[in-house]
Amino acid sequence: MGRAAVTTLLLFGVLAGGGGLLWRLARGRRAAARIGPPVLFGLLLLAAWQVACIGYGVPGVLLPPPSAIAWAFATHLPTLGVDWVQTVLRAVLPGYAIGCAAGLCAAIALDRSDFLRRGVMPLGSLAAAMPIVGIAPIMVMWFGFDWPSKAAVVAVMTFFPTLVQATAGLAAAGAVERDLMRGYGAGYLATLLRLRLPAAVPFLFVALKLNATLALIGAIVAEFFGTPVVGMGFRISTEATRMNLDLVWAEIVLASLTGTLAFAALSLLERRVAFWHPSFR
Amino acid sequence: MINRLGSALPVAAVLLALVAVWYPVAMWMNHDAAASLADEGASAGDVWRSTLSLDRPLLPAPHQVAGEILDELSGYPVSSPRSLVFHAGVTAGAALCGFAIAVVLGTALAVGIVHARTLDRSLMPWVIASQTVPVLAIAPMVIVVLGHAGLTGLWPKALIAGWLSFFPITTAMVTGLRAPDPMQRDLMRTYAASGVQVFTQLRWPASMAFLFPALKVAGALALVGAIVAELPTGAQAGLGARLLAGSYYGQTLQIWAALFTAGALAMLATGVVALAQAGLARAWGGRL
After folding, report:
1. Where are chain A's structural domains?
2. Whether domain A74-280 has CATH 3.20.20.30
């Protein structure tokens, strides 16, 4: 029997055995039925990937096996660390903070004028459908090749979702609660700080979570337009053309991990801050 | 409708204010470049005037961008690589193919997830997990690898656009197909409706209200995917290539023209989806 035939048999075995187990797990009603299948499905995918890559002799320049990616991740840790600092800490974090803060401030400012709000909001939702990453070359021209231009792209990308969500959030406090605040003799500022901003928090977290992934991808793509010789986007684009795919995949694993962890951290924070919201009770 | 008319005036006012701010900002930003280019002994007034007509301004004035777009749209034959119509067509074609893949695949996945519990439990988390992979970041690798395997041109870009845009369709359709409440399903059962009938006459129509907003999001994502996928191909064709080439050679007007064209395409996509929704609503004699 040839190597390809053995591999096919093995693949069939892995998929059939795993699939059967998956089927039985998903029928159960215990907690394992919730967590088990996705984990198993993932492991199955990795196993099939590994077996197929090795067995069929897929060249590493097409698709490296998971083991090679893990090895590249382990051996290139210093490179990955430097890229991560450049992209995540220098570009994403400042841009994210500026974009989200500016969006919130703009929403509060717009909130005072109904005319302005009706003028800006349609444009804000329109901006959500725009390919904003396209401004990256312009930002490179304005702010130079290094991280400030990437931070600027991230800031613009995160601004509009925050503006839209914060505006919706500021309108979320009910009329009864507002009347109550008025009954207490509370002015605009007190109503904003004590009632309307807290009421807007769940909406803000929608934007914050959405922006976390958006910002990371924005910074990586912005680096495709020119960057100093460091950064996750730079590494991905140059190593892809040099056919070093295991390092490219390692960068992608790192990006996925960062995005997932940021999302999880924000979700945890949301549970702490907006614990009163019906979706958590 | 009243709501839309009510916001037309404010939107126009905001846009007008934007343009009004744009001009002085452009003059201020371009002043250094204009001063260095000006002839010896040019008066300050001449320098300020020339800030709005530079070849490579730091920030082009709105009328310069509009002129550049008109020039690139009508100045060359459609098949010429200098024509904006050509590049917009290349990008729109890739985005549209990816969008079609996403609609078919996303809907099929949703139907499977709604009807089979095993698929729901095992597939749905991975549909979500597939979105934690930064697809746009993978784009260069996918393009390079597929190019290595002999696949170039439209389809690699369509693949990226499709991968990026199937997620909103799947999640919306899963929600939509599950939208009918138990009472309606019980009613169908009392009619002795078969599974297929429940699907075509209850679940499918109910899901349409969820599908169309998702289609708008997916359309925008497909366009972004197509544009980013054009970056690593060495700037041959498409709006992404125009952006990159403009970036390399400092052709600001070209960048802005490509950017506005991409925005126009995105608006066109949203508009077409809205029209389709209105058309379907009229055909079914109701609101979606």
Report:
1. 3-58, 74-280
2. no
**For residue B207, what pLDDT is reported?**
86
Position B1 scores a pLDDT of 38
pTM, full prediction: 0.81
CB B37 within 8 A of CB A148: no
For B263, which residue in chain A has the nearest alpha carbon? A130
Separation CA B113–CA B118 (nearest Å) = 8
B252-283 and B62-74 helices cross at what angle (nearest 10)?
80
Q: How far is B7 from chain A (nearest CA, A)?
A: 5
Nearest to A255 among B134, B224, B244 (CB): B134
Interface test with A, best of B56, B113, B228 (most A CBs within 10 A): B228
Give me the interface pTM, i.e. the ipTM. 0.77
CA distances from A154 to A134, A254, B133, B243 (A): 12, 19, 18, 18
- Counting one residue from chain A and one from chain B, the pairs whose CB atoms sit within 8 A come to 172
Tell me which CATH code domain B63-283 carries. 1.10.3720.10
Residue labelled with tokens 């003799």: A185
Query: What contacts B230, CB < 8 A, 6 or more positions away?
Result: B90, B91, B94, B157, B236, B237, B238, B239, B240, B241, B244
Which chain B residues have a beta carbon less than 8 Å from that of A88?
Answer: none
Q: What's the DSSP call for residue B39?
A: P
User: Within 13 Å of residue B263, how many CA atoms lie on the same side as its CB?
Assistant: 16
Q: Is the Cβ of B136 closer than 8 Å to some Cβ of chain A? A: yes
Query: From the list B122, B138, B243, which residue is nearest A22 (CB)?
Result: B122
- pLDDT value at residue A33: 58
Q: Map out the domains of chain B as residue ranges.
A: 1-59, 63-283
